[in-house]
Specification:
The protein has 166 residues and is an alpha+beta fold. The chain has two domains: 2-117, OB fold (Dihydrolipoamide Acetyltransferase, E2P) (Beta Barrel), CATH 2.40.50; 120-166, no CATH class. The chain is 23% helix and 40% strand. It has a five-stranded mixed barrel with strand order 1-3-4-6-5. A hairpin with a 5-residue loop joins β3 (20-33) and β4. The protein is flat and about 55 Å long. The protein starts with a strand and ends in an 8-residue tail after the last helix.
């Protein structure tokens, strides 16, 4: 499973037998602190390939993906090799996409999640949002003294600040 932004518009190739192949690049980012405490961003590029109905849907614009869109991709990792014109063996690692889901279009908000945003900063953002949307201080004091119950309403209220980016 990968979540990242498209590096270019998807390209679809049609074959004589009617089959289609879609290719696109996807950037995933990771943010971490180095030994000096400085934030570092590391971006990895992935070659995404889709065949069959998924490639057909993208070709016929039933799935309109474009450069910069934030996508969730589920698939398998494959490495293949070939020999170039000089006889040197080359290796290519690709993600064979089985599912592709749009999270947000390029230029639109993605509900607080940005590629490369750490879970810690995402948690801080959601906690700040839930605190600003909370009830009056007197109500907060009463609820903090009330023992927790196991009904569904209390469970969902406690888990508003989970660390899921979507």
């Amino acid at each position: 499973m990968l979540i990242g932004r498209l590096g270019k518009d998807p390209e679809v190739i049609s074959f004589e037998n009617g089959g289609k192949k879609m290719t696109v690049s996807l950037a995933t980012s990771e943010r971490y602190r180095d030994r000096n405490g400085q934030w570092q961003d590391q971006t990895e590029w992935h070659n995404i390939v889709a065949w069959g109905n998924l490639a057909n849907d993208i070709d016929e614009k039933r799935r309109a993906y474009a450069k910069g869109d934030l996508l969730f991709i589920e698939g398998k990792i494959r490495t293949r090799n070939y020999q170039d014109a000089q006889g040197v063996t080359k290796y290519i690692t690709e993600i064979l996409a089985e599912k592709m889901n749009l999270i947000s279009k390029s230029g639109q908000g993605s509900e607080g999640y940005q590629s490369g945003q750490s879970n810690q900063s995402y948690n801080q953002n959601t906690q700040q949002q839930s605190q600003s949307a909370s009830a009056t201080p007197s109500q907060n004091e009463n609820t903090s003294q009330t023992p927790s119950s196991s009904n569904d309403e209390d469970f969902s209220a406690k888990n508003e600040g989970d660390d899921l980016p979507f």
